[in-house]
From TrEMBL:
HAMAP family: Porphobil_deam
Porphobilinogen deaminase N-terminal domain mapped to chain residues: 5-201
The protein's annotated pathway: Porphyrin-containing compound metabolism; protoporphyrin-IX biosynthesis; coproporphyrinogen-III from 5-aminolevulinate: step 2/4
Taxonomic classification: Bacteria, Pseudomonadati, Bacteroidota, Cytophagia, Cytophagales
Oligomeric form and interacting partners: Monomer.
SUPFAM superfamilies per UniProt: Periplasmic binding protein-like II, Porphobilinogen deaminase (hydroxymethylbilane synthase), C-terminal domain
Gene name as annotated: hemC
Name of the protein in question: Porphobilinogen deaminase
Length: 306
């Protein structure tokens, strides 16, 4: 008899794509899989901006309850949606090989970036970056899953949606991409493009090891360790305008990251390079560098303004 891995996930189409991707990896490794689908607060409350809902784990808490209760062995998340600190007794055990990390503009129309475009997004990072780099854009809040947002765009709420390439690609909307943002200018949120596996620290160690072997990409894991350590130093979640992206070259990791004020006026950013075996320390180092340049004060000011 094959061993069964019980997987808990959100119900959205993107979450299901990502869960099916994990299922395939586990099935190839000889496991059977069972899916439990749950709604999170982030899925239920759609008329409030994410940073106003208040809870840090808006897309994670209900899934974590299933892990605590032992109803599921693992939860599947977009790595980007994971707070930098997890609740006691839970850990991220694996990260999948990353999809392309950059952001894109999606639209039915031809897009002229020099024009007065109305852009839909619910990310404070994207709003702040546009205020800095594209102050002529009009930004409107756009919540909901990808399908809902595209529907709202087609109803005339905005000219284009600002989204992660990864989600657009996974949902098959690539032909609507009208612009690819440059990674070095429009640096993504920490974790963008990777799928994270969360488990209880009391998960059977042998099962945990087998799941890691089936799912984890070592290079991505090292990059995400650096990015998440950086975010943790800044005590940031996915709702603050912090960006961070690590890339790996041989046994070296380079990490670029920063904070941008909500009005786009102030940006503190820097880059560090170091050994892949010390990726977490590298992230902490970059965090400390930004803090010494006034990063904490900037973040406090941002949090007051949210
Ligand atoms: N914030 C929601 C979210 N979480 C993960 C993705 C896309 C997939 C990914 O980045 O891994 C998205 C949508 C988006 O930002 O466009």
């Amino acid at each position: 008899m094959k061993e069964v891995v019980k997987i808990v996930t959100r119900k959205s189409q993107l979450a299901m794509w990502q869960t099916n991707y994990i299922e395939d990896l586990l099935n190839e490794a000889g496991f059977e899989t069972e899916i439990i689908k749950l709604d999170t607060i982030g899925d239920k409350i759609l008329d409030v901006a994410i940073n106003k809902i208040g809870s840090k784990g808006v897309f994670t808490e209900e899934l974590e309850a299933a892990l605590y209760a032992g109803e599921a062995h693992i939860a599947v998340h977009s790595a980007k949606d994971m707070p930098s600190s997890l609740p006691d007794g839970l850990e991220l055990i694996a990260f999948t090989k990353r999809e392309k990390m950059h952001d894109v503009l999606v639209s039915d129309k031809d897009i002229d970036l020099t024009g007065k475009l109305t852009i839909g997004t619910s990310s404070t990072r994207r709003v702040a970056m546009h205020k800095r780099f594209n102050p002529h854009f009009n930004i409107v809040d756009m919540r909901g899953n990808l399908q809902t947002r595209i529907g709202k765009m087609r109803d005339g709420h905005c000219d284009a949606l600002h989204l992660a390439f990864a989600g657009v690609h996974r949902m098959g909307y690539e032909d609507l991409i009208k612009h690819h943002f440059d990674l070095s200018v429009f640096t993504p949120a920490v974790g963008q493009g990777s799928i994270a596996i969360e488990a209880s620290t009391s998960l059977n160690p042998e099962l945990k090891q087998k799941i890691i072997e089936a799912v984890n990409d070592t290079d991505t894991h090292a990059c995400l360790a650096a990015e998440r350590a950086f975010l943790k130093k800044l005590e940031g979640g996915c709702s603050v305008p912090v960006f961070g992206l690590a890339s790996q070259n041989g046994d070296q990791i380079s990490l670029r990251g920063g904070i941008v004020s909500l009005d786009g006026q102030t940006m503190i950013d820097d880059e560090v390079t170091g050994s892949m075996s010390e990726s977490r320390e590298l992230g902490e180092k970059l965090g400390d560098m930004l803090i010494s340049r006034g990063g904490k004060e900037l973040l406090n000011e941002i949090k007051r303004g949210l």
